[in-house]
Amino acid sequence: MARRMAALVSGVAILLLGSSVYAVPASAATPALVRPSSLASGAAPTGSAALGLVPASQQVQLTVVLQPSNTSQLQTLLQDLYDPTSPEYHHWLSAGEFVAEFGPSSSEVAAAESWLTSAGLSPSPVSRFALNVSAPASQVSTALGTSFEQYQSPSGHVGYVARQAPLVPQSLATGQIAAILGLNTMSQFQPLDTSGAPEVSGGAGTLQPDADGLTPCQGATSEANGDYYTLDSLGAAYGIGSLLADGQNGRGETIGLYELANANATDVNTYLSCFGLTNPVNGDLIDGGGTVSTSGTGEADLDIEQAATQAPGATIIAYEGPATATGAYDVWDAIVTDDAAQVISTSWSQCELQAEADGTIGAYTALFEQAAAQGQTVLAAAGDSGSEGCYPYDGSTTEQVTYPASDAWVTAVGGTSLFGPNDETAWNSCQSDESTSCAN
To answer: Is residue 343 helix, strand or coil?
Structure first.
């Protein structure tokens, strides 16, 4: 993967006067600038309160994501890789091969770097597909020809939204820039913990104890107290025990976990000791590591513990980065570029409608296609909101799903509540009494 690319310099002059943006007409030295509607940042959630312009000195982080090349050939290859009748079946590409065949050309990357540099920004390559930018809001506003409005959502989250689609060179706007992440920070990936899960109907003791061959310590069983599942009994309910008995325990495989918070090593080690697990667990800190978050750390802990319990022979890598638009992308990029994990699991998601509006889907598509081409299985939690996938974001009670579970190259997992052996229903935490789909 190319980490360094040469920058070419050209001129783009933009004046920002008050709230009006003026673009200098195109000339031999200044390319024509346009505002592609495809790069618009979407809106703040319904009911959000406007707080005024983002302070000029506040740092704004952006990720400019470029489109893959040879897209028709890529789609053909992906179909062939998963077609048992094709001679290409399971002939996976390496990360380097994918970038060489389907990455943006070096001239396209150089053009994007040239634009950002000449606009007064300092791009930092993430990979062949993406460039990161971090600068004060006033500098980013001048470079992109748009100011940023702060909002507070009904849930209390404070973020900002670009008032206009960014100004970009016309040569890059047509088929070269897939998305610019960070223009809208009102929607973020959230951990999908099960803190609101119903208690076990009839008690956890209705499941066959220790069916997966693991015997939890007294501390775990006491904490469950007969009303909640320990992870070994939960796995046993889905037949994990029979897989382990057949030797399908993940030995020789690596599981990659996507996290936007840091796990607590002490908590994880205590759990592993309690269950007699010896999985190697490694942390890979992306962009300095995960955001400090009580719920996020609990989710990261649970993800590691769940993976170790259901695959006691596997190596686990927890990729941990900050819960920002840039961090969220960089963690996925690291997992896919490393190509070290055969199975990738995420329990972080966002409302699909907002993921489409703020450019997330446009930016991530190539990453999931690359993972598929490399033979990496990506599993994503279906979400705790059932058919109300967008309710936590904007209060919508219409039937919506969460992203990335909805991506074509991602396998959605979960979506049910287990009450006992062979007794489960579709998960919907029924956050809105108005929802006609809330009928568990």
So the answer is: strand
Closest CA to 77 of 435, 416, 399, 370: 370
The DSSP code for 114 is: H
pTM beyond 0.85: yes
275: Cβ–Cβ under 8 A, 6 or more apart, which residues?
214, 215, 216, 217, 220, 231, 232, 308, 309
Token pair 């963690």 in the structure block, residue:
331
Structure confidence by residue, pLDDT tens digits, 246-282: 889 999 999 999 999 999 999 999 999 999 999 999 9
At 353, give phi and psi (nearest 5°). -60, -40
The full 3-state SS of 390-417, as one line of letters, equals: CHHHHCCCCCECEECCCCCCCEEECCEE
Q: Confidence class of residue 385 from pLDDT cuts 50, 70 and 90?
A: confident
Helix (H, G, I), strand (E, B) or coil at 141: helix
CA-CA-CA-CA torsion sign (421, 427, 433, 434): negative
Q: What is the DSSP string of 373-389?
A: HTT-EEEEE--TTTTBT
Task: Return the sign of the alpha-carbon dihedral for residues 154, 155, 160, 163.
Answer: negative
For the ranges 74-78, 178-182, 206-210, the lowest mean pLDDT is seen at: 206-210
CA 414 to chain centre: 17
For the purposes of burial, counting CB atoms within 10 Å of the CB of 169, is it exposed (0-12), middle (13-18) or buried (19 or more)?
buried
Span between the terminal Cα atoms of the chain, in Å: 48
